[in-house]
Amino acid sequence: MTKHVHLLYDFARPHTIIATSVQVITMLIIVAGWRPLTPDLIGLALATLIVCLALNLYVVGINQLTDIEIDRINKPWLPIAAGRLRMRTGRRIVVAALVIALTGAAVLSTALLITVSVIALIGSLYSLPPLRLKRHPLAAALSIASARGVIANVGLAFHYQSHLAVDLPLTTLILAGVFFFGFALVIALYKDLPDARGDRLYQIETLTTRLGAQRVLQLGRVLLSLCYLLPIGVGLWSLPTFAAGFLALSHAIVITLFWWASFRVDVNQQQSITNFYMFLWGIFYTEFALLSIYQLTEPF
């Protein structure tokens, strides 16, 4: 039993599981605010989390099912590429995940059903022929940025509002939408850095194969810095409240750490690039926590 759970965990890509979980919980905190933690609220969070994790499993699973040969070069540790999970079993898992996601979303709210349906469609178009958007750098980046950065956040906010009957914190949501769209663009750029060898072999055109790793790394630095200027600027403009100071200072610290880490990357070593990419995901998780703290402290 433990072996099967571990296999499913690997198939679902751990860093995306963490990102989805943090996103679901953080958006609830942002929308609910200081509402007491009741059994109903916990139940809502858990049910939403199950739906979103199932959706995440579908999206990452279908990508692995269509990238087996490439993954054997770029990510040989993945279950299907490594031969630990049979193709037929992978298909069954992906179909079951989609059914759970759509059914659960339909039960919970219209907003969540629309969100899940749109993201599942984007995930399908990203991986499956004939469009296979991942072959086109701009389309691939926009797909990831819109799904992970905007649609998921906005959809979760309206989903929670439908249950809690509260006014949405529009300033925080707009800030989160713009910020995470840009952040997800950088993730989309950097996700191909460790995969250059396999992408070139199978003629998958990415900005890394077109421009080279060093230029893509620098482009990401610029884009992410622009993203961070937004919350830093909002914080400075709103001083002298505690929330404003926290928003500006915390983001200044994080972007400084990012630049420090980016200059330590050896673009000629795949492990170094992979470690940096995982560090970027760590910053992504941190950002949800920072924005939730900002929202909770805004009245002070």
TrEMBL record:
Keywords of the record: Membrane, Transferase, Transmembrane, Transmembrane helix
A Pfam cross-reference name: UbiA
Positions of transmembrane segments: 12-34, 41-59, 93-126, 170-190, 219-237, 243-263, 275-294
A cellular-component GO term for this protein: membrane
Membrane-topology annotation of the record: Multi-pass membrane protein
Location(s), subcellular: Membrane
GO terms assigned for molecular function: transferase activity, transferring alkyl or aryl (other than methyl) groups
Main localization (coarse): membrane
Family, per entry: Belongs to the UbiA prenyltransferase family.
PANTHER family: HOMOGENTISATE GERANYLGERANYLTRANSFERASE, CHLOROPLASTIC, HOMOGENTISATE SOLANESYLTRANSFERASE, CHLOROPLASTIC
Protein name: UbiA prenyltransferase
Source organism phylogeny: Bacteria, Bacillati, Chloroflexota, Chloroflexia, Chloroflexales
